[in-house]
Specification:
Order of helices and strands: HHHHHHHEEEHHHHH
Radius of gyration: 23 Å
Strand content: under 5%
Largest sheet: 3 strands, antiparallel
Shape: globular
Number of domains: 2
Distance between the termini: 61 Å
CATH topology of the largest domain: hpI Integrase, Chain A
Strand order of the largest sheet: 1-2-3
CATH class of the largest domain: Mainly Alpha
C-alpha cells in the first residue's frame, strides 16, 4: 500500500488529500478481506461485488461508493502492473454514479459586502482583505493561494504564478483592485508587521510569521463572514472559487478563458459553472420579467 501511494504521488502527481482518500478506501477493503480470513490477492470479482453491496448497506452515498470503487480499481491495476496478481478481479466492478452537485456561489453583492467590510486598521485586516480579494479575483484553490510566494508576484505585468495540482503552474491576471490590495498589504504596517515575516517568503503569513495554513484560512473566512453578516454556512474558500467562475460566465466570459484561469485539465469540469450561471439567469428572469408568471 505504501509503495502504491508513493507511486501515485510521484508518477501521477496526486495531492495529499487524494492519497489520504485512497488509503482510507483501499484500507476498508483490506479490513473487510482480513475479517474473512482472506487477502487482497485472493479476492474474486464476486467478493468485490459483495464488498460494494456491504458499502450500500451502510447507507453510503453513490458518490462515496463510486470513489471507493475507483480507488480499488486503481489499486488492482497497480498490483497487476507490478506482477503481484495474474488477473484483475476489479475490471467489471462498477460503483454508484457520482452525484452531480452544482456549486453554490455567493451573490455578487454578498462577495462585495464581505470583502469591503474588512477595514485597514491592523496588519491582520490588510492580510485578510488581500487574501479574500485574491481568492475571488483569481479563483485559486485554497492550497494554491497559501502556496504563493513573494517571487510569484509580478506587479509590472500584473500577473501571479500559481502552482496547482500535480505541480502544474499557470499565470493568472492580477486585477487592478487586487494589485492595489496586495501592494497595501505588502507595504508599511502590513505583512512586515507580523513576527519574523521577513524570514518567510510566503505571501500570506500567520500571527507568528509562519506560512498561513488551510485551517487558518477557514478561520479567517468564518470570522469575516460573521462580521459582515453573511451566512457562515454558505462561505468557504472554495465558494470564492465557485463564485469567481460563475460570475465571470454570467458576465459573458469565454468558457475556455475560465478553464485556463481555474486550472481545469478538462473543459467538462468548467462546464458545470455554465449550468450554475444558467440557473441564476432563470431565477433572475422569473423574479424580474412581468410575463414570467401566469
Amino acid at each position: 500500500m505504501d509503495e502504491y501511494l508513493q507511486w501515485l504521488a510521484i508518477e501521477r502527481g496526486r495531492s495529499r488529500a487524494t492519497l489520504d482518500a485512497y488509503r482510507r478506501d483501499v484500507g476498508q477493503l483490506l479490513k473487510w478481506a482480513n475479517a474473512r480470513e482472506s487477502t487482497v490477492t485472493q479476492l474474486t470479482e464476486a467478493d468485490l461485488e459483495r464488498f460494494t453491496n456491504a458499502l450500500r448497506r451502510e447507507h453510503r452515498s453513490e458518490s462515496s461508493i463510486a470513489r471507493s470503487v475507483a480507488a480499488i480499481r486503481g489499486w488492482y491495476s497497480y498490483l497487476m502492473d507490478e506482477g503481484h496478481i495474474e488477473s484483475d478481479p476489479s475490471v467489471r466492478i462498477r460503483g454508484g454514479r457520482r452525484a452531480r452537485t452544482l456549486p453554490k456561489p455567493l451573490a455578487e453583492a454578498e462577495v462585495a459586502r464581505l470583502i469591503d467590510s474588512i477595514g485597514a486598521a491592523t496588519p491582520t485586516d490588510l492580510r485578510d482583505r488581500a487574501l479574500l480579494e485574491l481568492l475571488y479575483d483569481t479563483g485559486a484553490r485554497v492550497s494554491e493561494a497559501i502556496g504563493i510566494s513573494l517571487e510569484d508576484l509580478d506587479f509590472d505585468e500584473e500577473l501571479i504564478l500559481v502552482t496547482g495540482k500535480g505541480s502544474k503552474q499557470r499565470l493568472v491576471p492580477m486585477g487592478s483592485l487586487l494589485a492595489t490590495t496586495l501592494r497595501t498589504y505588502l507595504g508599511p504596517g502590513g505583512r512586515s508587521a507580523f513576527a519574523v515575516a521577513r524570514k518567510n517568503n510566503r505571501l500570506f503569513v500567520n500571527a507568528r510569521g509562519g506560512a498561513l495554513s488551510r485551517q487558518g484560512v477557514d478561520l479567517i473566512i468564518d470570522k469575516r463572514a460573521l462580521n459582515a453578516g453573511v451566512d457562515r454556512a454558505k462561505v468557504s474558500a472554495h465558494v470564492f472559487r465557485h463564485s469567481c467562475a460563475t460570475h465571470m460566465l454570467a458576465h459573458g466570459a469565454d468558457i475556455r478563458v475560465v478553464q485556463e484561469l481555474l486550472g481545469h485539465a478538462s473543459i467538462a469540469t468548467t462546464q458545470v459553472y455554465t449550468a450554475v450561471a444558467l440557473t441564476s439567469l432563470k431565477a433572475e428572469y422569473t423574479n424580474a420579467h412581468p410575463r414570467a408568471h401566469d
